[in-house]
Amino acid sequence: MKPFALLATRAEDVPADEEYRLFLEGTGLAERDLIRIRLEAGPLPRLDLDGLSGIFVGGGPFNASDPLERKSAVQRRVEAEFAALLDEVVTRDLPFLGACYGIGTLGAHLRATIDRTYGEPIGVADVAVTEAGSADPLLAGLPRDFGAFVGHKEAIRSLPENATVLASSPGCPVQMFRVGENVYATQFHPELDLEGIIVRIHAYADYGYFAAHELEATLAAVRRAPVEHPQRILRTFVDRYAR
Question: Which residues does the UniProt record annotate as the domain Glutamine amidotransferase (predicted)?
Fold first, then answer.
Protein backbone atom coordinates (compact mmCIF):
# COMPACT_ATOMS: atom_id res chain seq x y z
CA MET A 1 0.00 0.00 0.00
CA LYS A 2 1.15 3.51 -0.73
CA PRO A 3 1.39 5.56 2.48
CA PHE A 4 -0.79 8.45 3.55
CA ALA A 5 0.70 11.74 4.76
CA LEU A 6 -0.31 13.81 7.79
CA LEU A 7 0.59 17.49 7.46
CA ALA A 8 0.73 19.01 10.93
CA THR A 9 1.33 22.52 12.27
CA ARG A 10 1.38 22.14 16.06
CA ALA A 11 4.59 23.58 17.51
CA GLU A 12 4.08 22.06 20.96
CA ASP A 13 5.38 18.50 21.19
CA VAL A 14 2.76 17.08 23.56
CA PRO A 15 -0.36 17.96 21.50
CA ALA A 16 1.56 17.29 18.26
CA ASP A 17 2.48 13.78 19.38
CA GLU A 18 -1.05 13.21 20.65
CA GLU A 19 -2.50 14.31 17.31
CA TYR A 20 -0.33 11.80 15.45
CA ARG A 21 -1.38 9.05 17.88
CA LEU A 22 -5.03 9.90 17.31
CA PHE A 23 -4.70 9.81 13.52
CA LEU A 24 -2.94 6.45 13.75
CA GLU A 25 -5.69 5.13 16.01
CA GLY A 26 -8.54 6.57 13.96
CA THR A 27 -7.22 5.42 10.60
CA GLY A 28 -5.91 2.06 11.78
CA LEU A 29 -2.64 2.76 9.96
CA ALA A 30 0.80 1.69 11.14
CA GLU A 31 3.45 4.39 11.53
CA ARG A 32 5.15 3.28 8.30
CA ASP A 33 1.88 3.96 6.46
CA LEU A 34 1.22 7.44 7.87
CA ILE A 35 4.09 9.81 7.11
CA ARG A 36 4.17 12.66 9.60
CA ILE A 37 5.36 16.05 8.38
CA ARG A 38 5.55 18.89 10.91
CA LEU A 39 5.31 22.02 8.80
CA GLU A 40 5.94 24.37 11.72
CA ALA A 41 9.40 22.78 12.10
CA GLY A 42 10.60 23.35 8.55
CA PRO A 43 9.62 23.75 4.89
CA LEU A 44 7.29 21.25 3.27
CA PRO A 45 9.44 18.68 1.49
CA ARG A 46 8.66 17.85 -2.09
CA LEU A 47 5.80 15.35 -2.06
CA ASP A 48 5.46 12.68 -4.72
CA LEU A 49 1.69 12.82 -4.91
CA ASP A 50 1.61 9.76 -7.14
CA GLY A 51 3.37 7.90 -4.35
CA LEU A 52 0.70 8.70 -1.74
CA SER A 53 -2.70 7.18 -1.12
CA GLY A 54 -3.98 10.45 0.32
CA ILE A 55 -3.28 13.47 2.52
CA PHE A 56 -4.57 14.40 5.96
CA VAL A 57 -4.19 17.87 7.48
CA GLY A 58 -4.49 18.27 11.24
CA GLY A 59 -5.52 21.26 13.30
CA GLY A 60 -3.49 23.94 15.02
CA PRO A 61 -3.54 27.47 16.38
CA PHE A 62 -3.13 29.26 13.02
CA ASN A 63 -6.13 31.26 11.76
CA ALA A 64 -6.45 31.77 8.01
CA SER A 65 -8.56 34.92 8.46
CA ASP A 66 -6.11 36.81 10.66
CA PRO A 67 -4.67 39.98 9.09
CA LEU A 68 -1.38 39.37 7.31
CA GLU A 69 0.54 41.61 9.71
CA ARG A 70 -0.53 39.42 12.64
CA LYS A 71 0.66 36.21 11.04
CA SER A 72 4.09 34.91 11.95
CA ALA A 73 6.73 34.22 9.33
CA VAL A 74 6.13 30.52 9.90
CA GLN A 75 2.40 30.82 9.28
CA ARG A 76 2.95 32.83 6.11
CA ARG A 77 5.37 30.19 4.83
CA VAL A 78 2.97 27.35 5.70
CA GLU A 79 0.09 29.12 3.96
CA ALA A 80 2.17 29.62 0.81
CA GLU A 81 3.12 25.94 0.83
CA PHE A 82 -0.49 24.89 1.25
CA ALA A 83 -1.57 27.17 -1.58
CA ALA A 84 0.88 25.52 -3.97
CA LEU A 85 0.00 22.02 -2.77
CA LEU A 86 -3.75 22.59 -3.02
CA ASP A 87 -3.40 23.93 -6.55
CA GLU A 88 -2.34 20.43 -7.51
CA VAL A 89 -4.57 18.50 -5.10
CA VAL A 90 -7.77 20.23 -6.21
CA THR A 91 -6.87 20.18 -9.90
CA ARG A 92 -6.09 16.46 -9.78
CA ASP A 93 -8.92 15.71 -7.31
CA LEU A 94 -6.51 13.79 -5.09
CA PRO A 95 -7.77 12.24 -1.85
CA PHE A 96 -7.48 14.91 0.85
CA LEU A 97 -9.06 15.33 4.26
CA GLY A 98 -8.35 18.49 6.23
CA ALA A 99 -9.55 18.84 9.84
CA CYS A 100 -10.10 22.21 11.59
CA TYR A 101 -7.09 24.20 10.32
CA GLY A 102 -7.38 21.98 7.26
CA ILE A 103 -10.81 23.42 6.48
CA GLY A 104 -9.31 26.90 6.67
CA THR A 105 -6.52 26.05 4.24
CA LEU A 106 -8.87 24.45 1.73
CA GLY A 107 -11.50 27.15 2.21
CA ALA A 108 -8.93 29.89 1.64
CA HIS A 109 -7.77 28.15 -1.52
CA LEU A 110 -11.36 28.11 -2.83
CA ARG A 111 -11.80 31.78 -1.84
CA ALA A 112 -14.52 30.93 0.66
CA THR A 113 -15.51 33.63 3.13
CA ILE A 114 -13.72 32.83 6.39
CA ASP A 115 -14.20 34.99 9.47
CA ARG A 116 -15.13 34.82 13.14
CA THR A 117 -18.91 34.82 12.66
CA TYR A 118 -19.27 31.12 13.41
CA GLY A 119 -16.44 30.42 15.84
CA GLU A 120 -17.38 27.79 18.44
CA PRO A 121 -16.12 27.37 22.00
CA ILE A 122 -14.41 24.12 22.90
CA GLY A 123 -17.04 21.47 23.49
CA VAL A 124 -19.27 18.92 21.81
CA ALA A 125 -21.24 20.17 18.81
CA ASP A 126 -24.43 18.54 17.56
CA VAL A 127 -23.60 17.87 13.90
CA ALA A 128 -26.29 17.11 11.31
CA VAL A 129 -25.54 15.39 8.01
CA THR A 130 -27.08 17.15 5.01
CA GLU A 131 -28.95 15.41 2.21
CA ALA A 132 -25.80 15.56 0.10
CA GLY A 133 -23.81 14.20 3.03
CA SER A 134 -26.12 11.24 3.48
CA ALA A 135 -25.27 10.21 -0.09
CA ASP A 136 -21.53 10.71 0.31
CA PRO A 137 -19.47 7.51 0.73
CA LEU A 138 -17.22 9.08 3.36
CA LEU A 139 -20.19 9.43 5.73
CA ALA A 140 -21.66 6.02 4.97
CA GLY A 141 -22.84 4.28 8.12
CA LEU A 142 -22.83 7.40 10.29
CA PRO A 143 -26.08 8.51 11.91
CA ARG A 144 -27.72 11.61 10.48
CA ASP A 145 -26.98 13.39 13.76
CA PHE A 146 -23.87 12.88 15.89
CA GLY A 147 -21.72 14.64 18.45
CA ALA A 148 -18.25 15.89 17.55
CA PHE A 149 -15.51 17.80 19.31
CA VAL A 150 -15.03 21.41 18.19
CA GLY A 151 -13.18 24.51 19.29
CA HIS A 152 -12.25 27.20 16.78
CA LYS A 153 -12.07 30.97 16.54
CA GLU A 154 -12.92 31.20 12.84
CA ALA A 155 -15.06 29.26 10.39
CA ILE A 156 -16.35 29.32 6.84
CA ARG A 157 -19.27 31.70 6.47
CA SER A 158 -19.96 30.99 2.79
CA LEU A 159 -18.61 28.58 0.19
CA PRO A 160 -18.30 28.93 -3.59
CA GLU A 161 -20.87 27.13 -5.72
CA ASN A 162 -18.50 24.31 -6.66
CA ALA A 163 -18.31 23.12 -3.04
CA THR A 164 -20.90 20.86 -1.40
CA VAL A 165 -21.84 21.12 2.29
CA LEU A 166 -21.99 17.65 3.82
CA ALA A 167 -22.60 18.45 7.50
CA SER A 168 -23.72 21.42 9.56
CA SER A 169 -24.46 22.43 13.15
CA PRO A 170 -26.59 25.12 14.78
CA GLY A 171 -23.54 27.22 15.61
CA CYS A 172 -21.53 26.59 12.44
CA PRO A 173 -23.26 26.09 9.07
CA VAL A 174 -20.23 24.48 7.38
CA GLN A 175 -19.01 21.60 9.52
CA MET A 176 -17.92 19.52 6.54
CA PHE A 177 -17.70 20.03 2.79
CA ARG A 178 -16.39 18.43 -0.37
CA VAL A 179 -15.01 19.85 -3.58
CA GLY A 180 -14.73 17.55 -6.58
CA GLU A 181 -15.18 13.89 -5.66
CA ASN A 182 -12.26 13.27 -3.32
CA VAL A 183 -11.24 16.50 -1.55
CA TYR A 184 -12.82 16.93 1.89
CA ALA A 185 -12.56 19.15 4.96
CA THR A 186 -14.18 19.17 8.38
CA GLN A 187 -14.51 21.95 10.93
CA PHE A 188 -14.96 19.41 13.72
CA HIS A 189 -12.14 17.09 14.72
CA PRO A 190 -12.79 13.55 13.45
CA GLU A 191 -9.60 12.28 15.09
CA LEU A 192 -10.30 13.39 18.66
CA ASP A 193 -11.31 11.31 21.64
CA LEU A 194 -11.96 12.61 25.14
CA GLU A 195 -8.38 12.05 26.29
CA GLY A 196 -7.03 13.86 23.24
CA ILE A 197 -9.16 16.96 23.62
CA ILE A 198 -8.30 17.21 27.32
CA VAL A 199 -4.61 17.20 26.33
CA ARG A 200 -5.29 20.08 23.94
CA ILE A 201 -7.33 22.06 26.45
CA HIS A 202 -4.37 22.09 28.80
CA ALA A 203 -1.81 22.68 26.04
CA TYR A 204 -3.67 25.69 24.60
CA ALA A 205 -5.05 27.17 27.83
CA ASP A 206 -3.28 30.47 27.11
CA TYR A 207 -4.21 30.75 23.42
CA GLY A 208 -7.47 32.63 23.84
CA TYR A 209 -9.93 29.77 23.35
CA PHE A 210 -11.28 30.37 26.85
CA ALA A 211 -10.53 32.61 29.82
CA ALA A 212 -8.35 31.34 32.66
CA HIS A 213 -11.32 31.03 35.01
CA GLU A 214 -13.21 28.93 32.45
CA LEU A 215 -10.87 25.91 32.52
CA GLU A 216 -13.14 23.69 34.60
CA ALA A 217 -16.21 24.72 32.61
CA THR A 218 -14.38 23.90 29.38
CA LEU A 219 -13.41 20.47 30.68
CA ALA A 220 -17.04 19.91 31.65
CA ALA A 221 -18.20 20.98 28.19
CA VAL A 222 -16.24 18.21 26.44
CA ARG A 223 -17.70 15.66 28.83
CA ARG A 224 -21.32 16.72 28.32
CA ALA A 225 -22.08 14.02 25.75
CA PRO A 226 -20.30 10.95 24.38
CA VAL A 227 -18.48 11.35 21.05
CA GLU A 228 -18.53 8.00 19.30
CA HIS A 229 -18.86 8.37 15.54
CA PRO A 230 -16.49 10.91 13.89
CA GLN A 231 -13.37 8.70 13.98
CA ARG A 232 -15.14 6.34 11.56
CA ILE A 233 -14.66 9.00 8.88
CA LEU A 234 -10.89 8.49 9.09
CA ARG A 235 -11.15 4.72 8.73
CA THR A 236 -13.58 5.06 5.83
CA PHE A 237 -11.21 7.51 4.12
CA VAL A 238 -8.37 4.99 4.38
CA ASP A 239 -10.52 2.07 3.26
CA ARG A 240 -11.74 4.06 0.27
CA TYR A 241 -8.42 5.45 -0.93
CA ALA A 242 -5.67 3.01 0.12
CA ARG A 243 -3.92 1.89 -3.04
Answer: 50-193
Residue type, 145: D
Range list of β-strands (E), the chain: 4-8, 34-38, 54-57, 96-99, 113-115, 120-129, 145-152, 155-158, 163-169, 172-179, 183-186
Query: What is the pTM assigned to this prediction?
Result: 0.97
92 alpha carbon, distance to own chain's centre: 20
Q: Collapsing DSSP states into helix, strand and coil, what is residue 170?
A: coil
**pLDDT, tens digit, for every residue of 25-61?**
999 999 999 999 999 999 999 999 999 999 999 999 9
CB neighbourhood size of 63 (10 A): 19
Q: Which CATH class is domain 4-241?
A: alpha beta
Biggest CA–CA distance in the chain, Å, is 49
Whether the CB-CB separation of 55 and 97 falls below 8 Å is answered with yes
